């Protein structure tokens, strides 16, 4: 029996008559890493925006963890544990790495700014913030100003601030984009680690990352699902190969 934490049915989005996403059914299994791939303009970002309610579907329904969220507010969804990586991870560049995670924790707890400023409350989040930094391998950078972090470590900090919201389902938007091969390897390992007791849905252009991490891959093309399954299966699918032919992503692979 399947246990989908996220289920979309007949999801569609039309922009001024242009059908960006049409009639998509998606099942994200609890505890899995699920990747959304496809050539440029395939509709991946639109699907992410629909699932997280940044935009409203023209048709279809979305059920998250047993609740219909088709009309829910993005913040309600985040509070229920479906968190998109950049949603709270606008890193404050001039705060320390530790303070960035503490701010995220305080936001999760819904405490007011003034309350947050009390030393007692700050101390109480210290321990949890340090644990999160440890989890993403940034403990030794706790006192570093965020802006000074190398690029790969900034993404690790983003993941830590996302983890601060205690997500059940994390949506990662191209987590390895623009990274050196070394950083790609590190972030891949980090994603695998944080996925141990969570579900991950990711848009990712790097096919090597996808092939390493994803349990299931949904391939989008022109707003529709072209293929779905494990990497070994979809990568041999003639329709997928044709859709990728001549597209930039092949080079990334
Ligand atoms: N707000 C909008 N208004 C009009 N058209 C849009 C809007 N957002 C997206 N589109 C169109 O919908 C299609 C899908 O775009 P989307 O950004 O979801 O694709 P994508 O797969 O994320 O592409 P990329 O890999 O280039 O980021 C594109 O043709 C795009 O131009």
TrEMBL record:
Keywords associated with the record: ATP-binding, Nucleotide-binding, Transport
GO MF entries: ATP binding; ATP hydrolysis activity
Cited CDD domains: ABC_Mj1267_LivG_branched
Endpoints of the signal sequence: none
Alphabetized SMART domains for the sequence: AAA
UniProt-recorded name of the protein: Branched-chain amino acid ABC transporter ATP-binding subunit protein
Entry superkingdom: Bacteria
Coiled coil: none
One GO CC annotation: plasma membrane
Species of provenance: Salinisphaera shabanensis E1L3A
Pfam family membership, one: ABC_tran
InterPro entries xrefs: AAA+_ATPase, ABC_AA/LPS_Transport, ABC_transporter-like_ATP-bd, BCA_ABC_TP_C, P-loop_NTPase
Annotated ranges, domain ABC transporter: 6-247
